[in-house]
C-alpha cells in the first residue's frame, strides 16, 4: 500500500502521524511511505531520519494526497485540505465529526473512507487510539489550569498546592475516565484539594481505592455540580461520549455563581465541549473570559507537547496502520471489530450513529460496505 503523511497545518499543531521508526516498520513490510518535507520537524524528527528509514520525502502536500492510498494524519482535515482528499482514499486520523458539520459534509462529498482514531473501540468499551492523547490532555489540563489561575493571566491568584498555613486550591474534575484520572493524578501531586465527579459508582469506588487522600469522589448530577462550582477554583471538563457530542454539564447561568477568576478547562472541546460557554481556541490565543470566568478551550492540547504526544500516539496507531496496509481497509475492518467501529463516513454515507444523530443525517449500516 502507498501511505502518505502530510504536514499538519492546524494552528500550532506540531505533531506528526508517523515517526521514522513507524515508517520503517511499514516499509520493511513492503509498503511505500511518502512524507511531506518537514512534517516531523515540530516533533523533533528530521527529514534525514525519515530518509534513513526508507521513506520518500515530497515537498507539496497536494502530491502526498494525490499519490497515497492511505493518508495518515493527526488532526482532522481543515478546509484547505478538503479538496485534496480523493474518492475511495482511506483517511486515518482524528475526525471528531460530531462537533463540526462542515467537515462531515465535506468528507461525505469527497467519497473517501474516513476511519476515525477516536471511535476505534474495543469490546470492553475502551478507546485505544484516544487513550494516549486523553492521558496527555488530562495531565496538561492541570498544568495549564494552574498557570491560568495566576493573577496576571486573570485567574484568582491562587497557588494550586497552597503553602503551610494556607489552604490549597480546590479542583473539580467532571468525569472519572482517562482524562479525569490523569488530571486528578497531577492535581493531587501538586497538593490541590481534588474532587472527581462521575455517574458510575463502580468507577468511583475504584478511584477512591487508588487515589491519594486529597482526592475525593462524588456522584455527578446537576444539583451537585451547581453547588460544587460555587467554591472551586479550577474546573476540568473531561466527559466523553464516543463519537457523539459531549453533554453540557456546566451551563451559562452557572458562571454567575462562580468566583471571579475561576478557571474552566474543557478537554471535551473537540467533541463540542461539556461547558455550554465553551468554543474552540488555539495555543496562539488559548483563553477568553465570560462573567469573570477564564475559559481555556484549546482543541488540540497535546499539540503543545508534540514530542511526547507523537510518540504516545504512534505507539498506539502503528499496529492498526500495519494491519490496514497489510490487509487493505476492507479485510482489516471485516476481521477487526475495533477498526470497524472506527469507520464514520464511507463513499458518501454516514456509517456511525453518533455522527448521523448529531446533524440529523441519514444513517447507513456499515455492513453495506463489508
UniProtKB/TrEMBL annotation:
GO terms for biological process: L-alanine catabolic process. One of its GO terms (molecular function) is nucleotide binding. The lineage of its organism: Bacteria, Pseudomonadati, Bacteroidota, Cytophagia, Cytophagales. Pfam families: AlaDh_PNT_C, AlaDh_PNT_N. Gene3D superfamilies: NAD(P)-binding Rossmann-like Domain. Keywords: NAD, Nucleotide-binding, Oxidoreductase. Residues 149-297 form the Alanine dehydrogenase/pyridine nucleotide transhydrogenase NAD(H)-binding domain. CDD domains: L-AlaDH. NAD(+) binds at residues 134, 198, 203, 220, 239-240, 267-270, 279, 298-301. Belongs to the AlaDH/PNT family. It comes from the Bacteria. One of its GO terms (cellular component) is plasma membrane. This is Alanine dehydrogenase. SUPFAM superfamilies: Formate/glycerate dehydrogenase catalytic domain-like, NAD(P)-binding Rossmann-fold domains. Substrate binds at residues 15, 75. Its EC number is 1.4.1.1. InterPro entries: Ala_DH, Ala_DH/PNT_CS2, AlaDH/PNT_CS1, AlaDH/PNT_N, AlaDH/PNT_NAD(H)-bd, NAD(P)-bd_dom_sf. PROSITE patterns: ALADH_PNT_1, ALADH_PNT_2. The active site is at residues 96, 270. Residues 4-137 form the Alanine dehydrogenase/pyridine nucleotide transhydrogenase N-terminal domain. It catalyses: L-alanine + NAD(+) + H2O = pyruvate + NH4(+) + NADH + H(+).
Amino acid at each position: 500500500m502507498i501511505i502518505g503523511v502530510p504536514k499538519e497545518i492546524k494552528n500550532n499543531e506540531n505533531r506528526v502521524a508517523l515517526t521514522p521508526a513507524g515508517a520503517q516498520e511499514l516499509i520493511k513490510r513492503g509498503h511505500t511511505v511518502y512524507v511531506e518535507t518537514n512534517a516531523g520537524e515540530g516533533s523533533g524528527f528530521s527529514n534525514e531520519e525519515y530518509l534513513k528509514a526508507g521513506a520518500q520525502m515530497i515537498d507539496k502536500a497536494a502530491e502526498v494526497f494525490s499519490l497515497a492510498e492511505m493518508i495518515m494524519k493527526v488532526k482532522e482535515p481543515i478546509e484547505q485540505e478538503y479538496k485534496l482528499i480523493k474518492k475511495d482514499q482511506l483517511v486515518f486520523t482524528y475526525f471528531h465529526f460530531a462537533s463540526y458539520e462542515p467537515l462531515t459534509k465535506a468528507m461525505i462529498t469527497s467519497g473517501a473512507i474516513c476511519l476515525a482514531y477516536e471511535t476505534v473501540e474495543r469490546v470492553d468499551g475502551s478507546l485505544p487510539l484516544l487513550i494516549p492523547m486523553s492521558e496527555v490532555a488530562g495531565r496538561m489540563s492541570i498544568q495549564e489550569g494552574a498557570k491560568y489561575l495566576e493573577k496576571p493571566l486573570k485567574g484568582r491568584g491562587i497557588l494550586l498546592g497552597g503553602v503551610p498555613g494556607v489552604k490549597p486550591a480546590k479542583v473539580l474534575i467532571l468525569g472519572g475516565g482517562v482524562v479525569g484520572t490523569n488530571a486528578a493524578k497531577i492535581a493531587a501531586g501538586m497538593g490541590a484539594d481534588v474532587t472527581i465527579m462521575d455517574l458510575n459508582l463502580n468507577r468511583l469506588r475504584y478511584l477512591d481505592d487508588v487515589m491519594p487522600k486529597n482526592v475525593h469522589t462524588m456522584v455527578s448530577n446537576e444539583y451537585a455540580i451547581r453547588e460544587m462550582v460555587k467554591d472551586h477554583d479550577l474546573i476540568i471538563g473531561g466527559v466523553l461520549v464516543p463519537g457523539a457530542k459531549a453533554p453540557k454539564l456546566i451551563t451559562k447561568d452557572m458562571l454567575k455563581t462562580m468566583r471571579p477568576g475561576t478557571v474552566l478547562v474543557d478537554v471535551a472541546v473537540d467533541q463540542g465541549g461539556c461547558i455550554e460557554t465553551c468554543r474552540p481556541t488555539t495555543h496562539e490565543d488559548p483563553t477568553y473570559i465570560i462573567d469573570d470566568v477564564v475559559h481555556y478551550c484549546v482543541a488540540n492540547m497535546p499539540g503543545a507537547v508534540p514530542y511526547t504526544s507523537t510518540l504516545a500516539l504512534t505507539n498506539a496507531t502503528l499496529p492498526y496502520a500495519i494491519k490496514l496496509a497489510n490487509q487493505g481497509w476492507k479485510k482489516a475492518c471485516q476481521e477487526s471489530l475495533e477498526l470497524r467501529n472506527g469507520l464514520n463516513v464511507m463513499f458518501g454515507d454516514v456509517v456511525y450513529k453518533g455522527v448521523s444523530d448529531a446533524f440529523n443525517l441519514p444513517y447507513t449500516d456499515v455492513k453495506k460496505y463489508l
